[in-house]
Amino acid sequence: MLAVTLAVSGLRPPSAERARRRFPSNTPYELLARFGLACAGAVLLGVATGWPVAALGGATMGFFLMELVSPQGARHAPIEMTEAIAVWTEQLRDTMAAAAGLQHAIVATAPLAPPTIRPGIERAAMAAAREPLPDVLRQLASDLADPTADLVVTALVLAASGDAQDLGEVLSTIASSARDDAIMRRHVDASRARTRTAVRTITAIALFTLVGLLTVGHGYLRPYSTAKGQLVLALVLACYGAGVAVLHRMARERPVDRILYREAGR
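Structure (tokenized):
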């Protein structure tokens, strides 16, 4: 039954939620920081060169600077989420193996869940006392917003509806698969470190070269002050930006589509 549910979910057209996962939106604070960096880059290069194209390039670089220097913690957050869900899944399995019901298992494991997902589990444990368990579980999937959590919740919803058999074995399989997935993603992230380093190195060299030319190479940059020079500079910056964007895309992990989602207003 679980396999049928997953197969049917894969036939559904992409929803707005899936589109948002492919192109995640920034929080207001991140957008504010991006616009601040964009303004700073535009002012710095615009004042230093007096060229509108350089100001536009500085604004673009500032806006995307946070992605170029993304910290390791931000990249590993989805992997740590997967590992946390695997731990909680095993806790559920072990608790239910001691002759505990599903609702009791959720309540019992809430204080012991990994910190990454504990707030969501605790909200589900409190809601389970007053709401139908399938609805609570679907809300939990929405709170966690993780593909692995969707697999766990699907199995739990089927169990709460009386349609699942041997839930412990299903949870063991999901937990094992989640751990293997996390290990694989850590290996992939490590293999992409060279590409991320190349992006940062290229960007640093370009900035260092520009500062050097602005300091001691005014004669070399003089042709760019004309209208034709600005057009050539725009072409050069566009080619450079496209190259950096391709390298960044190669080093970026693409989000996995979820199988459970809630449309807005539902």
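Residues 74-189 form one domain. The radius of gyration is 25 Å.
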